[in-house]
Amino acid sequence: MHSDLDQSIIFKIKKVLRYNRLYGPRRTLIKVRGQYHMASKTGFDGAEWINPACRDPDHPDRWVGIIGCGNFSFSNIAYYLGKESSRFLRATHDIARPQARSLCAFFGGAYAAGDPRKIIEDEAIRLVYIASNHASHAEYAIACLDAGKHVHIEKPHVISDEQLKRLSEAQRRNPQCMIFLGFNRPRSKLFERARDALEKEDGPLMVNWFLAGHSIPDDHWYFSEEEGGRILGNLCHWTDLTLELVGHEKAFPCTITAIAAPQAKSDFAISFLFDDGSVAGITFSAKGHTFEGVRETLNAHRGDVLLTLSDFKTLRLDRVEKKSTTSSFFRDHGHRANVINSYIAVRDGDNSKATSLQYSRATAKLFLGVKEAVDLRTPVVVNADESESLNGQDRRSA
Q1: What superfamily in CATH does domain 185-330+357-382 come from?
Q2: Cβ atoms within 10 A of the Cβ of 26, count?
Q3: What's the pTM value of the predicted model, to 2 decimals?
């Protein structure tokens, strides 16, 4: 949310050392390189920049386009795709031309486009990763779907009911096209283990999240009315995770109640009562600099299973008298698995890895309901789709 390049040298060294311990040397290095990418000032004139270092721009392996070339695209999307295939990238676009050129050059793409339509109309591109500003995600996705392209849409995939309606219509119009959502945390190995343990138990769930997020200045673009604010920008990660635990076929109607101070933009307490009797709470706090990034704690209880997941690094599981603790060497938020899932699905033509229309609608309705509850300071009931049968398909099924 801010550049660490502006901090003191001692702060930078401490940050790098801490991130090396949390994420490993390679992730740390690409995060550092991403800061310099964001500071790049070298753009281009005209309709496109042709990368002179790309010797095979029309190679058949180059079928990925990226729209939105910020730090996330650089240090996550392109970074992980580059590990899967050195020739993955064909084209980039960003409204900030220096970032489009920088990402294209660093990852060996063929060209950077000044107009997104160049990517949308490029017949060599089969899959487009969309990581632009939030309000534009659905608009780009709809255009790509109507051009016959598969799309990976970073969160949030919509910022309004109207966008959700039009994106759903585009998905119905183009059943041959797969969509994938940028909710990465469900693909974390520790979260998968936690979910599997809870699914073996019967009865409703009790779920509680405590989250300490980055403090963002009041004039940050996240808070622009058209971008959806902190809830659609961040909190949707954990509404989606909660829906994963409950199951979208059991969730609706869902009653959402929000507590927030009158002028609060980043501090909320949200409660959910789902159709199957499951109850969830999400507390989100942003009150200063979180040196180690977002801090996340999940406590969940179903049947005989009681568990705690801390920062996607440590999972403690209690089942009656049996106790176990599992720790990963580094934090795993599922970024790599989620980015690569989309690429492999398109490469192999595997529709089973795509996000279903039913799940796409369900998770969007939930986070849009949370925003409404916070904005209105009144309970909101989110009902099941009347026109869609939420028939129990997994989010990764078409």
Answers
A1: Dihydrodipicolinate Reductase; domain 2 (3.30.360.10)
A2: 12
A3: 0.92
